[in-house]
Amino acid sequence: MSLMASKPPVAVYDACVLYPFHLRNILIQCAFDGLVEARWSDEIHAEWMRNLGTNNPSIDSQRLATTRDRMKAVLPDANVVDYETLIPGLSLPDPDDRHVLAVAIVAKASLIVTWNVKDFPAIATIPYGVICQSPDDFLLSLNTTFQEALIDSVARARHNLRKTVPSVDEFIAGIERQNLLAFAEILRRNKSRII
Question: Taking Cα atoms as reference points, which of 193, 173, 149 lies closest to residue 183?
């Protein structure tokens, strides 16, 4: 199916999917290529940066800020503001996740892409027209809708790695290590195109 035949989904990227490098790289490339309209907030950015910095103290905070700024520069429409007033009226198992749903509501997003699907129960999100998907399920869905374009996007994502471009096998192994098991299998079947 061609990109022109389907409208890309509007998806909020939760902090936990922006934290792992390979996944973040692929998700940003997919948005840059028009397969998805990505949305986030400064609060979401602050969360993934804080967690990555805490878990990897050797990573310079300025490097993380530079990464965030590049993401915002290549996807200038992704940043969502003025969602804070919705937060007190939302109910989720973890109150700290309410800001993500508030961002989705203001962005008129249909999806939240998160590893923490259980933290966004359908009973709390569906009334706002939002469902949650794991990144693996999200990428499988994009593959169904934009199969050719998605593989091309992934190939470009691999070449975004400037210091050393990993081999296709190394790149897929890195994706698999980030628990994108079904998506890694799709990439293996399309290995010859990820060059």
Answer: 173
